[in-house]
Amino acid sequence: MRVVIQRVSQAQVIIEGNEVASIGNGLLVFLGIVNDDTKEDIEWLSNKIIHLRIFNDAQGVMNRSVKETSGDIIVVSQFTLHASTRKGNRPSYIKAAKPDYAIPMYELFVKQLESHLGRPVQTGRFGADMKVQLLNDGPVTILIDSKIKE
């Protein structure tokens, strides 16, 4: 699993002109899934996201997590995170999991985040053409891959 995490002051997901998710301070998480992702990847990555200390404390130091700040989360599926650009100029998405595997993993990931966070997590809609608006706070943008664990 691969995520791009953005600390946001606000974020919205719009599908066919309708807002389906909206948050103030929190995290916008773009999630890419491959066929060899497992429940262990979900557990490790969701735990990492919830406890990632990227919010400022009273001294202005990034020392607090989304859970500690009562921030919200939006998760958006994004198969393009697994694009391969080795050959030519057209990315290949062959590594990205197909919907029959990816959708249940996506849903399990969201449930696991909710369990760690202790409240609902908002989402886009898997496979939909989404418009994502955000105000990146910082800017803070972090890439995490559960296979690399850096």
Report on this model:
There is one protein chain. This protein has 2 helices and 8 strands, in the order E-E-E-H-E-E-E-H-E-E. With 150 residues, the protein is of the alpha/beta class. The strands form 2 sheets. Strands 1, 2, 3, 6, 7 and 8 form a 6-stranded mixed β-sheet that branches. A two-stranded antiparallel sheet has the order 4-5. Helix 1 packs parallel to helix 2. It is globular. It starts with a strand and ends in a 5-residue tail after the last strand. The relative contact order is 0.29. The model has no long low-confidence stretch (mean pLDDT 96).
Q: How many β-strand runs?
A: 8
SSE ordering: EEEHEEEHEE
Unreliable stretches (pLDDT < 50, length at least 5) are none
Overall average pLDDT: 96
Query: Which of globular, elongated, flat, extended, rod-shaped describes the shape?
Result: globular
- Range of strand content: 35-45%
Major sheet description: 6 strands, mixed
What percentage of residues falls in helices of 4 or more residues? Answer: 10-25%
State Rg.
Answer: 15 Å
The number of helices is: 2
